[in-house]
Amino acid sequence: MTVAPLPGLVTRPAGNTPRPGSRAARMLLPRSVEVLRDLANEYGVCTRPVSMRRTDLATGQTEVIDLPCGATREDKCQPCARRNRKLRQAQIREGWHRPDEPLPGPQPATPEQRELVLRRAHLEFERDHASRTVDEVQVAVLDEAIREVEEQLTVEGLRGRVAPPHPSADEDGLPVVDEQGGRRKRSTRRRQDAPDLPRRKVEQRTVGKVYTAPDGTEYQPSMWLTLTLDSYGPVAGDGTPLNPDRYDYARAAWDAVHFPRLLDRFWQNLRRCVGWNVQYAGCVEPQRRLAPHAHFAIRGTIPREVLRTVAAATYHQVWWPVPRVQRYTRNRPPLWDDEAGAWVDPETRVPLTTWADALDEVDSDPDAEPAHVIRFGAQVDARGVMPGTEDAERTIRYITKYITKHVGDVHAADTDRRKAHLDRLWQQLQLTPCTDRCANWLIYGIQPKGAHGKLRPGRCKGKVHQHATLGIGGRRVLISRNWSGKTLSDHKTDTREWVRALLGVTDGLDQVDPGTEARHAWDMARPTDGDVPPLAHRLLRSISERARWRSQLLAAKDRAAQGSGPGSLTDQAA
């Protein structure tokens, strides 16, 4: 039997549709703040801009200008992170398949520069004579004259130093020797467990080899390379260890901290092996098992067997004191003694071993072994890539896939096993020393280099100890110096100039020629200042401005497409 509705009530439609005007219906309405944020992300407007006050020095007029924050992580600012990722893609694209050398040789010195260097040589001759005759007054006068000449050489545009500075002298006229500043030298003899590599003189050539087909067509391919670390124990398909108790988390933590140095040694060995200045651009990211690996774009081609041989023969030794026993904990740390100026044992008040003494013990032991040796794993992937193909663009997108994310966010800990694996690695990283100045050395009874009372034993502030980095604290993007011949700022300027040329804009905001006075003065504008509008007002204004720019840019690109074409930077400005 169907019950009749009460008089005056409207029957609601079947389903979960809330009653119009109810709180549930209001909660389904989109939020204006989220719509504003989505529009800002769509039009590339920075969601946390830095407000700067610009003052015209001629008229005294001031205006508040929002500058992008420049964040490289999406969790901080998605538009700025995406802009940085596109800029890195443009940098890799421009340098990967270059047919010519990116950097020309230095220009010849001018007569004024040669004259200054000759004057510097005369002063060096006179100083040597005064030093041998123990004429301290004349030596001081000549040192001042040498300093003035060095400054003039810098003003004239000469790069670098002509000669290193002279050491200062003590009261007896003897040179002062810095007891802690000397770099310790160790034997460069290769390890017996590493294969030898051929060593050739490295040519100043960065361009790859050109191949000619039987029909006369020329090809200049390049390569894509992936380098990984060794295994620390058997893992399952999701990257978690099958037996966590036997998984070598200590070695995994040390390898993650020193992985960038291993990559530097690889490129050094590779250049010496092939005999030319190999250029690379890549990114470091964690594998599913959370061990770091690196993807690289290489200009030119190298035999795969050579790459595997160099990877197998590359290693990096960490000559530090071996942190064997953890003598202190975070709850029972050593104490700082202001009178002694050192960290001491909390019970005996005996100072801990200094960093210099700990290294002296390592140097005095003829059978000493490095604290850690890091090597690559057996997996080395390499393949050729032809320029101008979809494979090249797809590879560039793959290399820069995760540069806008934190290392800990690349592979989400969506299961209990993966979360436990991540936590165990992070706990080990918190106890692993990252540098010679790391506060973690204190829990092993060693004072780090440059120890002071503000250190917190076992709580180093280095990025490698953070949960979001998992040992990869910095140097995630690795690009060689002669890759494109430009810095990231240069590529940003190229994009801006291309857009301005496409739109026909010729005037700049604050372009000042060298040697002329600045037209504007800049200072920081705080959100509480009276002339700074609310953030929502500034975002709305920036979104409108960006929308107008996009319309003008698309119209200019259509006009250019009907003529000679928009150019080579379309992907950067899109």
From TrEMBL:
Listed Basic and acidic residues bias regions: 190-203
Location of the region described as Disordered in the Swiss-Prot/TrEMBL record: 1-23, 157-203
Highest taxon in the source lineage: Bacteria
Record protein name field: Replication initiation protein
